[in-house]
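Provenance and format

Records in this collection were gathered into a single text stream. Each protein contributes a sequence line and a token line. The two records reproduced below are adjacent in the stream.
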Amino acid sequence: MSGAKLDIARGDVSGILGAAKPIPWEVAVRGKITRDMVEELSRIRGEPDWMRRLRLRALEMFERQPWPNWLPIEGSIDLESLVLYAKPTVERARSWDELPRELREYYEALKIPELEAKVLSGVIGQVDSGVTYESVKKDLERAGVVAMSMDEAVKRYPDLVKQYFAKVFPPEYKFASLNIALWGGGVFVYVPPNTHIKLPLELVILISSAGVGQFEHSLIVVGENSSVEFIVACAAPVFTGVSLHDGMTEAYIHRGARVRLVDLKNWSRGVIYFGNNRAIIEEEASVDWLSGSLGGKVTIVYPMSVLRGVGSRATVTSVALANGPTWKEEGAKVFHTAPHTYSKVVSKGVSLNGGTSVYRGLVYVREGARYAKSSVSCESLVLDERSRAYTIPHEQVFEVTATVTHEAYTGRLGEDKLFYLRSRGLSEEEARSLVVLGYFHDVMVNLPVEYVSVFNRAIELELSRLGGVG
């Protein structure tokens, strides 16, 4: 398998990433997912034996677990048709000038070099299955922070990685097992105790073409009384055909630490996305999840927060734009297992041109989690008769002192509002864009202003697709 190359046709590209340019692969592996394939992947990557065994155990779970019957997809995803490991020929760069021009233009279209210079403490860039760019500020290294590609961390920090890898999110369902068996790329971040990283770290993930299976795996470990913000930005050019992103982010947040995890997605129409994201939060620690979703064929992501320590906290905020024949399912799972824990979930979805937005969530309060508090708020805006919005909350409360609330609202954009905006000189497309941007504004203001500008521009481009809005 090693050294094989596949030539996959690339379609025309439009939108924020500009024109498509082929990214050649040094190694490409596809076919039936077997023990031999998984062992070959581990050999190609030069991994230690413990990681090979971990992959094989996950493969055994994958083979035993049933295919999820809740997926909004007709039939199964044909995994054998995908390139399951695609390593670019690009050498890993430490500066943008070292990257090939065609790849650098992708990053420039996303304004990543500009963002790195202004608001980031480090950037790691992944294309398909391989990391192609890695740059972290020197002051982080001097403070004892580890921030590097996951494949490098497995070799350089094996004891630390083994302690947490696949322990926060074990192979407990089909797509988690698949990720652990086939993972490639992702980031390892370790923040030692009493260390505060002022500027975010970012992982930028690109899928270069149709027919690719991407299995990024990131692990974030934050020591006591420390803080960090980690951003995952996903994008793909427009291409014909289906690709799969089955990613995973594990976070272990020690006592008193504060962590912010941001997940921004701007996919091509053909991408099926599963986000397997989970955090374990110890005493007096907190996690803030923020998810923004554009594009894609199917998006399913509901980050899980396990409030393990007394006084631990979690907030989950998601915004999703379902434009055209797409299914956007964003939500949250929160497990209150200790006293005086707190969670807040806010979800906003917009559906138009036949799109479907879904909130699906679970709040679980264990007996003994005294005085736990949780609030869930779901809002949906439907812009036409062909589109749909659903709210599917689930609550399991076994503690009488707990307070759990849920509220949901679904509304339609009235013609009177559009008429008023058009009377002010706006076109219908501009009017709808203004409404959607305003609807998301109170959530997006939590991002740095540079990211708000990029995301707003991506929303405007998304609303101009499929022959315009309305």
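Adjacent record:
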Amino acid sequence: MPFDLIKIGQLLRDTREKQGLTPDEVSRELFLRKRVVGAIESGNWENLPHPVYVRGYVRQYAAFLDIVDLLNTEIVSEEAASSGPRGATRRRKGIPKGRESGKRRGPVMNFVIAPWTIVDQFIGR
């Protein structure tokens, strides 16, 4: 998993309880289901969506409790500890050197057709 949700969930639960909030209040305020709030606090990945969403939920929860700085310290320290030696980069297998970033080369043209041009085509102008 991308970060230790058990440790972070416990931090969120402890802070919530210190502030005298219930899981129902957190659920209503953050527009999350109660089972999602409970799964985050218990560190239960099986009852949660993709880790990208969970990261957003955790950050939103931390902002609600006003502990964003503390949470960022926890996540950054855990990611640094799990990433190996600093500065070590690994190239993904099967990707030619120089293409690891996944960036496109050259300009990307996104054409947007204005609605009135479509209407003009139907009218025959």
